[in-house]
What does this fold into?
Amino acid sequence: MSKTGDLTKKDVLHIAKLANLQIQDANIEMYRTQLEETINYVENLDELDTSNVEPTSHSTRLSNIYFEDGTKNSRQFTQKEALQNAKSTKKSMFVVKRIME
Amino acid sequence: MEIHVELKTKSKMFCQCSANYFGKEPNSNTCPVCLGMPGALPVPNKQAVEWTVKIGKALNCSINKRTKFDRKHYYYPDLPKGYQISQYDEPIAVKGHLDITFKGKDNSLTEKRFNITRVHLEEDTGKLTHAGEDTLVDFNRSSVPLVEIVTEPDFENADDVKVFLEELHTIIRTLDVSDADMEKGSMRMEPNISLSLYENKEERMKNLPKYKVEVKNINSFNFAKKAIEYELKRQAEILDKGETPTQETRGYNEDKGITYSQRSKEEAQDYRYFPEPDIPPMEFTDDFIEKVEKTIPELPASKVKSYLNDYQLKYDDAFILTRDSSLSTYYEKLIAVLSKEKQLDLKKQNLEQALANVIVNKRIQTNISEKEFAEKFIKMFARVEVDESQLETSLEKAIQENPKAVSDYKSGKTNAVMALVGTVMREMRGQADAMDVRKRLEEKINKI
Amino acid sequence: MDIFGKSLTELRDLIKSNKISSKELFSYFAKRAEKYNSDLNAYLTMIDFTDHSEGDLSGIPIAIKDNFCTQGVRTTASAKVLDSFIPPYESTVTRRLKEAGVLFTGKTNMDAWAHGSSTETSDYGPTKNPWDTTRAPGGSSGGSAAVVSSFLAPAAIGSETAGSIRQPASWCGIVGLKPTYGRVSRYGVIAMGSSFDCPGPMTQTVEDAAMILQVIAGKDPYDATSATEEVPDYRKQMTEKRTLTFGVPDEYMKGLDRDVEKKVEESLKVLEKLGHKVKRVSLLDPKYSISVYTILQRAEVSSNLARYDGIRYGNGRDAFGSEAKRRMMLGTYTLSHGYYDAFYKKAQKIKTLIIEDLKRVFDDVDLIVAAPTPMTALKLGEFEKYPFFGETMDVLNEAAAVAGTPAISIPCGLDSKGLPVGLQFMGNYFDEGTILNAAYQFEKETNFFDVLAEGRKKYE
It folds into this structure.
C-alpha cells in the first residue's frame, strides 16, 4: 500500500479484511476515494517539525493505576445476565458457526 | 520457544472476577470487562504486574523502568474485545538468561545458557468447544493474567528444550506465582522449530532459516520433546529433498506422536498494535524493583550448587531434592532438627547425605510431619550400646556351633562368614554393629 | 404550578420545599416529550418513573445520551448493531446521578456511535433542531441539546470526543460543558475515541452545569484514566469575585461566519465591560488539531468497534452504518503494518505540540475565548457538502479535545437568521472552576441575551 495517491482496490479489500468488514464491490471505489481524501488532508502534519518531539498517548499524566488483587467483585454477572443479550446460546455458552481446527 | 504461564492471582488481569475459572459453570465467572461489553474499561491488577517483574528478575532480565500495555488486534470468537491487551514494544522484562547444569549423555555435567528475549504480561482468552455444526464459547477464562516468556533460538535439540522447560517450570513453582499445571493448561508452550545448517551460534543468528513451524497443543514436557523430534525429522526429510518446509502452525497428536497442519499458508499477521488508551503507563522505581526482587526465594539452580558445596551431596540427590521447593524446605528443616541429635550412627556419611539418601530412596516417606520423620530417622540410625561380654560369648558360640561355615570360610568362601554374622546379630537381638561383628569373627577364625 | 423554563436549581428548590412531588415533575416532562418528541426525534427511548434515592438532586429528571449504559434500559448509541441491547450494568456517570437522586426521563438520540456533528448519522433518523426543524441540532449530542432547548428535560447528559457537547449546545442555544479528560469517568460510556471521550452536562444555566459536574466528577476505580485530583466546590468557584485575563487566538477568528464573528466581538466587549482583560494571543493553526484528532480518533474507533461481532450481544458487523465503516477503514489503514509511524505516532507527537502550545498561552491568560463553531445550525442534509461529513464544523473544538483540556459553550446572541450563536471559553487542565466563573459572570450580565427563553418559546 502507498501513503497517498495510488491506493488500489486490492488495498481497500485488504483493509476491509483486517477490519473484519464486508464491503460490496459497488462501494470499493467510494471507500478508496474517502480514504484518499482523509489521507491527503492529514498530510498537513508533515508541515510541522517533530524530530525532537516525544509522542503523547495519555494527556492525563497518570501512571501506575492498579486495583488490589482480591478486591471484592461487585460487578459479577449471573450466568443469565452474561447470556441475556446473545442471539444464540447452547449449554449456557455463546454459539458461533463451527470453526475448523 | 514461547511459553505462556497463567498467574494464580485471586482476581483476573483487568477486572475483579475470580482468576480461578477451573470447573465453573460456563459463563458464570464474567463481568462487563472480561465479556467485552460496550463501555467497559480495564484496570490492571497490581499483583499480576508485580509477579511479572518477579518472574523477569528470576530469569535475570532487566526490568523496563517505563512500560505500558498495547492493544493487539485480531478476530476470533474467544477474544471478546476484538483485541487482546498485551505488551508490544515496551515489555516489563527483557534480555535475561537461564544457566542450567544438566547431565549429558555420557553422564558428565554440563552448563548451558538459554537466553530470554522478553517477558510480558497479557490476558488470556475464552475457551472454545466444538459441537457438531456449532462452536461454543465460554468466557470464564477470559482476562485471566497470562505471562508470556519468549526465548532466543538457543535450543539445539529436543533434550535442550525438555531440560529448559523443566527448569523453568520448577522456577515458576518456586516463585509461587502459578500452578504451572500443564494438563490444566496453566502452563503452555509453543516451540517454533526450524533447521539450520550452522552449528556456530553467531552464524546461525545471522542466517536464520526462512521459515518456522509453530507447534501448539502440547501439554507435557515429554510431548514437547517428542513433538520436536518428530518435527526435526519431518523438516529434515523435506529439506533433504531440496524443498523448504511451509511456514505454518501445527498441532500435536499425542496418541499418534505426530504433528499435523492446523493453519497453513498463514498470511503474515497484522496485529495493528497501538498503546492501550484505557490504561496509563507503568513506571517502576528502583525501590519498587528491589522490593519485588527481595520476595524471590533461593532458586533451584542456586540450591543445587549450595547442596553440592555445603552438604557435599551427590548431584542426582541435590537435583531431586530441589525440584520442589516444599521438598527442599522439608529437607532443610530436617537437617536443622537432626543436627542437634548426638545419638546417630551414620556409618561415616555426613548427616546431609544420609538424609538425602533416605528421602530420595523413599526409605521414609515424606508425607508425614518433620517431627515424625525425624523420629523414624533417629530410630533407623540409632547408635548401638553393645554388651561386650555377651558379644564375646556369642562370637565364640557361633564359631563352635558352625564348623562347616568356618571351614568354608577358611577354604576361601569368605561370604560364608555372613551366616555367622547373622547368627550373632540374632543372638544379640540387633544390639551390635554388624560390620564390627564381621570384623571380629574373621579375626577369630583366622586365628584358629 | 408553572414549571416551564425552570432551571435545575429552581426545580430542586421546588421539590425540597415540597411544592411539587418528584412524580408530578417527572410526568410533566413525560407529557411534554409525548407531545413534541415525534416532531423533534430527540428521544429514542422513554423511561418510566421509579423510586429514587435521596441526595443533592433528589427527584430531578435528567435526559441521558444513549451512549451511556443504563442497567435494564435499552442502550443503542443510535446504532442498529445495538438495536436490542439492554445492559446488565450501569455507567459510572448514571450511577452517580442515580445515587444523587436523579430520575432519567429517557435516552437521547445522537450520531450513531457518536460519529458526527449533526445527529444525522443516527440509525434512527436525525434529530431536528428545535429552533428550526429543517435544521440539524449539531452533534453528536444533538438529542440531548434538543431536549434541553425545547424543555423536554431541564438538563441532559452529553458526551464529547471533539465538540460533541459544545457544538450542539451552540446550535441549540444552551450551555454545554466539556470537562477535563479524566475528570468524569468514562466507565460504561460506549467508547468512541478512548483518549478523548468526556461526559459532561448540557443545561439551561451555568449553575446547573456546575451542580451536575459536582455529582459526576471524581476518581472512579473502574476507569484507570480517571483523574485523582480532588474535586473542588464548583459552585463556590463559580461565584467568587474574579477579574480574569482572556486570550483571543487570531487563528480562531479566521474563517468564521460574519454573524458569528460579530457576536464573538460583542461578547469580548461584555467581558471588558465586566472589568476583565482581553488580549490577542496566537495558537497553532487549528487545522493541525483536525488532522491529529482524525488520525488518533479513527484508529481508536477501529479498535473500539472491533468487539461488536454479534456473538455476546447485538447484531453482526454487517449492521454497521456507512460512517462507522468509513471510520474503521481509515483507522485500520493508519494502524496497519508500516504506517503506524507515519500516522499514529506522528499524530501523537503533534498532540504533544498542541498541549505545549496551549500551556504556553495559559501561562499568560486565564481562559482562551473563541467561537465553538464557525457557523450556526446547518440545514439537514447540508453536511454532505463539507469534508469528512462536517468534521470541519468542530475545527475550533479540537485543540481542547486533543489536549484534554476543559471548555464550555454558552449562548451569546442570535444571528441574522434568528439562530443561536455560541461563545466558547477554554481553560487549563482541571480549571473548570475558572471556566464556570467566567460563564456565570457573563450569564449574570447578559442573561444570555434571552436566547434560552426564545428557543423554548415555540414549545410552551
User: Anything to note?
Assistant: Chain C touches chain B through 42 residues (CB under 8 Å). Residues 341-362 of chain C form the longest helix (22 residues). The mean pLDDT of chain C is 96. The radius of gyration of chain C is 20 Å.
